[in-house]
Amino acid sequence: MRIFSGIQPTGAKHLGNYAGGFRQYAATQEQGEAFFCIVDLHSVSVPYDPADLRERTLDLFALLVATGLDPDRSTVFAQSHVSAHAEASWLLSSVTSFGELRRMTQFKEKSESQEFVSAGLFTYPVLQAGDILLYQTDIVPVGIDQRQHLELTRDVAERFNSRYGETFRLPSGVYPEIGAKIMDLQEPEKKMSTTGGTEQGTVYLLDSPDVVRRKFKVAVTDSGREIRHAEDKPGISNLIEIMTVSTGDSIDGVQSRYDGQGYGAFKSETAESVIALLEPIQARFREIRDDPGELRRLLALGAEKAAEVSRPTLESMYERMGFVRLG
Ligand code: ATP
Ligand code: LTN
Q1: From the CB of 85, is ligand 2 less than 6 Å away?
Q2: Which of 202, 213, 263, 299 is most buried by a 10 A CB count?
Q3: 131 CB under 6 A from ligand 2?
Q4: Do both 38 and 88 map to the same domain?
Q5: Is 46 domain-assigned?
Q6: Are residues 251 and 314 in the same domain?
Q7: What's the pLDDT at 225?
Q8: Residue 6 pairs with which residues in a beta bridge?
Q9: Pocket of ligand 1, candidates 144, 145, 204, 242: which has the most ligand atoms within 8 Å of its Cβ, to mutate?
Q10: What atom of ligand 2 comes closest to residue 42's alpha carbon?
Q11: What pLDDT sits at residue 233?
Q12: Ligand 2 atom at minimum distance from 7 CA
């Protein structure tokens, strides 16, 4: 089975990314041949700083390894190192409609908060579809916010297949049962996010224990006193999910463990469970990040493997679309 997922290097990575991304990557790499892509080309679709992009790309590689990816087993690479991604994006843009892209909620949300709305922000999902389809991917582990992009990817693949002949495997999104959408601690009706959330309500994977404690201490809770996962309790439900993600316990297990206890104790124990999760990750991160030469070597290794595996798909795309090939 082929597994593929992508993650953006810009923006500090947070608990939501851990729950919907990192945690699933490490688990799914055991199920087959896995590719994890640092999507640096996607990152330039919103304003960014070039020096920051360079640092963050290496940071993210280190964080992917620190959270459990084994670069000898899985292919971990940067999107810009494999030119097939940019090429596939252009070819697929001919089978993607303006109307489909205009309906994407991520585009609608992100374009509202930008003064300069780049064309890249609009065509972002086409680049993403190419990422996935180039590897003949079966499953894509992601958070629930990516569902619409996954559906578009399947539609684009089906359209290409019916117009030019069977070329792509149809991929399925895989969303975690719990933690597919971790919410902001300050505004639990919004997803935890570097671009859309609040600073106090976003717990970063590299936050120090004191910062984590403070963020949970001031987390918004709901009226009432019960520690129960329910629709009318978005703040507490989110904390229960966070504790479930960080301890591996079930929702029922957490609820019964805290039955009859107050919000204060529950919030501080959730913070401690997150600190216990993050400490070893941070220690491994520092160790790996300390050796940029080794990081570059591993990136080069990943790029070579990814280029080799994606090349035949790109070649069939050109071939079937009627381009003259010289090889
Ligand atoms: P932003 O922080 O700007 O919202 P992003 O976090 O969605 O961006 P990435 O860092 O590329 O962008 O996301 C990596 C993975 O994390 C994706 O699979 C995404 O679905 C998942 N993810 C992002 N936010 C959350 C969240 N709050 N809860 C669960 N999964 C999430
Ligand atoms: N759009 C995704 C990042 C992303 C991705 C991908 C995820 C780019 N290409 C391919 C899965 C598969 C995001 O914003 N989180």
Answers
A1: no
A2: 202
A3: yes
A4: yes
A5: yes
A6: no
A7: 86
A8: 37
A9: 145
A10: 8
A11: 93
A12: 3
**Measured distance CA(202)–CA(185) in Å, rounded:** 7
| Residue 225 CB partners (closer than 8 Å, separation 6+) | 262, 263
User: What's the domain count of the chain?
Assistant: 2
**pLDDT tens profile 58-72:** 999 999 999 999 999
In tens, the pLDDT along 71-125 reads 999 999 999 999 999 999 999 999 999 999 999 999 999 999 889 999 999 999 9
For ligand 2, say whether the CB of 38 is within 6 Å of any of its atoms: no
Residues 6 and 37: beta-carbon distance below 8 Å: yes
Q: Count CA atoms closer than 13 A to 116's CA, side-chain side.
A: 7
- Together in a domain, 278 and 307: no
**210-213 long-range CB contacts below 8 Å, 24 or more apart?**
212/271, 212/274, 212/275, 212/278, 213/268, 213/271, 213/275
Give the residue numbers spanning the domain of 239. 209-286
**Residue 159 shares a structural domain with residue 245:** no
Q: Length of the chain in residues, anyone?
A: 327
Q: Is 176 in the pocket of ligand 1 (CB under 6 A)?
A: no
Q: What is the residue with the minimal CA distance to atom 7 of ligand 2?
A: 6
Query: In terms of domains, do 161 and 60 share one?
Result: yes
The CATH number that applies at residue 216 is: 1.10.240.10
Dump pLDDT digits (tens) for 143-162: 999 999 999 999 999 999 99
CB 269 within 8 A of CB 239: no
Q: Give the closest ligand to the alpha carbon of residue 193.
A: 1
